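Priority: low. Protein: Molybdopterin molybdenumtransferase. Input follows.
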Amino acid sequence: MTLNRKPIQVSEAVGRVLENVTVTATEVVSYLDAHGRILANDLVATHDVPLFTKSAMDGFAIRAADSKGASGDNRVPFKVAEEVPAGSTSDYVLRENEAFRIMTGAEIPESADTVVMFEQAKETDEGFTVRKTFNPGENIAMQGEESSEGDIILEKGSLINPGTVAVLATFGYSEVEVYKKPVVGVLSTGSELLDVDEDLVRGKIRNSNTPMILAQLKRAGIEGRRYHMQSDDLDTLHDNMKQMLEEVDMVITTGGVSVGDYDLLPKIYDRLGAEVLFNKVAMRPGSVTTVSRVGDKFLFGLSGNPSACYSGFELFVRPAVQAMMASENVHAPFIDAILDEDFTKPNPFTRFIRAEVQYVKGEVYAKPSGFNKSNAVTSIAKSNCVIVMPGGTRGFEKGDAVKVMMTDVTSSADRFGVE
Ligand SMILES: Nc1nc2c(c(=O)[nH]1)N[C@H]1C(S)=C(S)[C@@H](COP(=O)(O)OP(=O)(O)OC[C@H]3O[C@@H](n4cnc5c(N)ncnc54)[C@H](O)[C@@H]3O)O[C@H]1N2
Ligand code: MOO
Ligand SMILES: [Mg+2]
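Result:
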């Protein structure tokens, strides 16, 4: 184990992780299970949308020419010849001043070319009258106006969102080829750790990292596999991790990556013959975060301190998981915000501060979410983002511009966004 590790910049560390990604194989899933997955092929339109020229309104379909010259003083009368509800069609050919009573979504019969909304017509015993000249195409959705058969609607690598699911259904794709979700194993190390339902005893604490990471994986759309936490015993830990490597595509451990007598991960990477991509990053917290590789499998050695562990996941694991599924957009959104309270500590390394973003009158404010040391756990719970302060900077003051990495886009303002 080397005590003098050489720190690399965060961006370089992220880059090294992404360079080493192996994309997962693909599988075919039901369109109903496809949300959150990544398309393995271009999604191609199997027909025009709209599929046929249809009424966009409830009203009357007429020949526009028949309304010529209509005005308030000279209302032009129409007679209803047939009804066309949505889902029905008609081959009836309109004669002069005849109309279809037609509903939104119904196919426009060949002989009609415009639709008079109910609100634009005055109903009479025989039909209705209009008070203006209609142009062809009014209140009509034209076949193919949105997209044409053969169009690429979404490219390979796109995230399947609820709209994509609707597109799959539109085009009759009941199944879709997507990239497999990596199988991710999570193992916390530390002889001080107890399980959630164990009684606290002197010198011990409950394991909060494993469940936190399982939740972070869930937020990234992955069902992680929980491994039972391990004491700091070299042989057992080694054997367990070797076994894990046979069962999963990616191993996440927490704790034991620093330079303490019982920080065993460096020795285990050695024994496993892992290629260490980096073991020191110029960041706080989580400077000892270590990422290595055995074959095409990543081992993420996250720091044991909860805040460092959390940030390490968001910075390195989340993009890696996305990239393994061939996502085009692997990074969290970074936004500009106004710092909402003084932060006086200098930042020799890039600093990540769990924080809360709020939108106030069109401005974005970010405020540290409480006690924020590496060992903090409560500030993670109150955060929806992480403030990034570049290395080599002095303290920041309230009102300064800062960069913010969003972690939780489901968080929202306390009021509805429009009056
Ligand atoms: N001589 C030095 N000592 C330390 C350094 C250093 O550079 N030189 N770095 C410090 C920093 S910074 C950090 S961060 C920690 C990293 O420690 P490890 O990643 O080796 O993690 P552990 O030693 O196992 O645990 C650290 C801390 O976190 C608690 N912990 C661990 N696992 C969990 C868990 N699953 N749930 C909740 N809490 C957990 C553990 O009890 C310790 O308090 O090293 C510093 N030391
Ligand atoms: O690695 Mo530690 O979390 O920098 O404070
Ligand atoms: Mg340690």
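The domain at 28-46+148-179 is CATH 3.90.105.10 (Molybdopterin biosynthesis moea protein, domain 2). The mean pLDDT is 96.
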